[in-house]
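Aim 2 progress update. The chain analyzed this quarter is reproduced below.
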Amino acid sequence: MSRIAKLIGRMCWRNSHHIDYRFDVQICDEPFIAFTNGERRWVYEITTELDKSDRRRNWTDIELMYKYYENPIEGLKTWFQVVQKTLKATLQYIRINIDDYPTQNKLFIDWIKTQTPSVEKIVIDGSTLADDDVSYFLNTITAEWSLYLDAKLSDRFTINFSRTLAGFYVKYGEWITVVQLVLIPALSISIVHSSLTPQELKAFFDWFYKDTVQGGVEITRSDGAIAFLGLFESPHSEFGVLRFCLYSNELNSALTT
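Predicted structure tokens:
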């Protein structure tokens, strides 16, 4: 580990005491760790191919280096600790594909918890049903700012939010009911592949826009339709902020009839 620390130190010693470094981690087939000072980004990809080790690729603001480890997860742990301790960097982002190391997911999550209790942004990928692993991750590590669930989840999946988020994104949202939608404490919500019916969405918007303060102007969209560009301040938003909305006359009629 000391050899790696010296390598990072040689690259960054001029700035390490004056600039706040941030780093992110991706757990996938070939995991990597990357850190940045806001201007340049250094990426270390862990590979099991010995002939790729120490190869470098450079772009204008990015430097990529491959590092060989027989066990990729152990290699990632090594670099994680060195970057965090050498640069006193803040972990801002974790992305994990739960399909790639299914037997090590919980062990790695437990290890991350020993290094930091929270992360600004969490992204969870996966093509197989993963209720248990996703629940374990979210109950162990706190997402401070945003949460992206790109993994497939069953209709029985539920989530308990420990804090209000700026953003909540779901790629496979069939499991989200209108009751769960109402309880999501996020400024921005994006749900793809939703099973919510038009009637349920209408009920949600009726609830959300009740007692809102509104104002705005009518505009003509590029397709010729008349739309309303408005400001909405909802008492149901924990942020208490103004929301910008753009909707057509057809949608407006659907919500008010």
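The radius of gyration is 22 Å. The first helix runs from residue 2 to 12. These observations will guide the mutagenesis experiments scheduled for the next reporting period.
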